[in-house]
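Quick one: structure for this chain?
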Amino acid sequence: QVQLVESGGGLVQAGGSLRLSCAVSQSIASINALGWYRQPPGKQRELVARITSGGITYYADSVKGRFTISRDNAKNTVYLQMNSLKPEDTSVYYCGARLVRPNGGPDYWGQGTQVTVSS
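Got it. Here's what it folds into:
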């Protein structure tokens, strides 16, 4: 069982920044992909950013140029730096880990952290 614990959410004004952290209970060096997802109220969960074990990154169009995903294998932690935040970024943000499969959704999820961007 892999546990993921997110932190760093909060309330910020539009244009501000936040950094989310996701601490993983096992070594992340061999985890195929780690991603950040969000689920706005009344909407489906969507992929925001993902990073593979080889360091390849993917970003949703809505966050390109504003968000940066990174991983620290020594700390077993993945980060999401969010800059130039907009009210539409308001959501619960979840960390997900896909252990081995080359594609598909996460095998494990964190509990989520709330991000609220005020206008």
